[in-house]
Design brief:
The protein has helices at about 85-95, 155-170, and strands at about 15-20, 30, 40, 45-55, 55-60, 70, 75, 100-110, 115-125, 135-140, 175-180. The protein is of the alpha+beta class. Strands 4, 5, 6, 7, 8, 9, 10 and 11 form an eight-stranded mixed sheet that branches. A three-stranded antiparallel sheet has the order 1-2-3, with no helix packed on it. It is elongated and about 60 Å long.
Length: about 180
């Protein structure tokens, strides 16, 4: 993935310079030579849920790139003005059209190489009826044995599902914090 960059100042439109700011910073940043604005690039937050009903989880088959046709948990980029929980619930509604009861914080995964942090919450399904949105080909419930493990879209989804089924077998859900290197 190509790293995000700033080419023009968001304040005045001048072409920025890539340099360490004079304010004691230690990292190279996009600095505007005209107005002095320092532009910081921070990781993007991806928020989602692990919707479950009994021993099954809800997965969505992607109708968009990247990874068109692969399976994923309902998740997407957090929007400005919403909390983590609100974003996770919104993504679940948009992608799966699932009626849920939001549960506890479940997992967080840092993916430094692409500048993202993925956060998942448990969500108890209140119905087996789904109304997938335009980003989803289909939404289905899967037991652990039925999960299409080789057809999962993202490492973060695979790791979160492993934790979910391990915790479910143990009879207690924990909080999971991981760094994803691949």
């Amino acid at each position: 993935m190509q790293p995000r960059t700033v080419k023009h100042c968001r304040q005045c439109g001048t072409l920025v310079e890539q340099r360490v700011p004079d304010d004691g910073d230690t990292h190279e940043r996009a600095v505007c030579p005209a107005c002095g604005t320092i532009h910081y690039l921070n990781p993007l937050l991806v928020v989602g849920t692990v919707p479950y009903l009994g021993d099954k989880v809800l997965l969505c088959q992607r109708a968009i790139e990247p990874r068109w046709g692969k399976w994923t948990l309902p998740a997407g980029f957090m929007e400005m003005g919403e909390t983590l929980v609100e974003g996770a619930a919104r993504e679940t509604d948009e992608e799966a059209g699932a009626e849920i009861e939001m549960g506890d914080f479940f997992s967080v995964m840092s993916i430094g190489r692409i500048g993202q942090v993925h956060v998942f919450y448990l969500a108890r399904l209140l119905s087996e009826r789904f109304n997938p949105g335009t980003e989803t080909l289909q939404a289905r419930l899967f037991s652990e044995a039925e999960v299409p493990w080789d057809e999962l879209a993202f490492t973060t989804v695979r790791e979160t599902l492993k934790c979910f089924f391990d915790d479910q077998r143990r009879g207690a859900f924990a909080i999971h914090d991981m760094d994803i290197q691949r």
